[in-house]
Amino acid sequence: MLHEFKYVAPRSRSELLDLKAQYGGRARLLAGGTDLLVNIRAGIFKPEFVLDVKKMEGFGGVTLDKDSNLVFGTATTINDVLKDRRVREEYPLLAACGHDLASYQIRNRATVIGNVVNASPCSDMAPALLCLNANAVIASSSGERVVSFKDFFTGVKRTVLEDNEILERIEVPSSSSGTKGEYRKLKRINGHDLGIVGVAVAIKGDTMHIGVSSAAPTPILVGPMAADIDIEKAVEAVAEAISPISDVRCTKEYREYMAGVYVRRLIKEVRG
Ligand SMILES: Cc1cc2nc3c(=O)[nH]c(=O)nc-3n(C[C@H](O)[C@H](O)[C@H](O)COP(=O)(O)OP(=O)(O)OC[C@H]3O[C@@H](n4cnc5c(N)ncnc54)[C@H](O)[C@@H]3O)c2cc1C
Question: All domains of the chain, ordered by start, with CATH?
Answer without folding.
Answer: 1-52 (3.30.43.10), 179-271 (3.30.390.50)
